[in-house]
Amino acid sequence: MDERRTVKVSKYLSKHLRHQPERIGLVLDEGGWVEIDTLIAAASAHGFRFTREELDHVVAANDKKRFAIEGTRIRASQGHSVEVDLGLPPATPPPYLYHGTVDRNLDAIRSEGLRPMNRHDVHLSADRETATRVGARRGRPVVLSVDTGAMHRDGHVFHVSANGVWLTKAVPPQYLRFPEPR
After folding, report:
1. Alpha-carbon span 77 to 170, nearest angstrom
2. pTM greater than the 0.70 cutoff
3. How far is 50 from 24, CA to CA, in rounded Å?
4. Contact present, 42 and 99 (Cβ < 8 Å)
5. How many other C-beta atoms are found inside a 10 Å radius of the C-beta of residue 38?
6. Domains (ranges, CATH) in the chain?
7. Confidence class of residue 8 from pLDDT cuts 50, 70 and 90?
């Protein structure tokens, strides 16, 4: 399977397993799972065909491990805008995590902190490199350090997804460390 096809199938899966399952007639269970055969049939009925082999390749090849397969079911690992309960237990974060963004968002972040926007949680990375890649999707990246140790001590709850993304409801501005202006 070539890289362009892999990306196309991955984006299709993200759209329908995270944001718009109803668009192709899917109903996710409370944990975000759907039967693989149901997904493939729904996609095909709506003009986007892919095989189980292609699906398995996309899941295995995705560097961010965006999807999880359990038996005959699949789900997105995190990043949903539709209501799901991933069933992730609370976790103790490392002292600092990181968030990638771009300059144009900094004023709002300084005043409001990090908010989940159209998702359920704010996504944080365990390392600067990953946060840099995340920020670079929207332009020239800016990496913020998040004092997650202090947040945790102050009662904020964290979860970590199967693919290592740290999740929390919001990050108030006092826990953020901004880089020096360029």
Report:
1. 19
2. yes
3. 14
4. no
5. 15
6. 3-76 (1.10.10.970), 97-177 (3.20.170.30)
7. very high
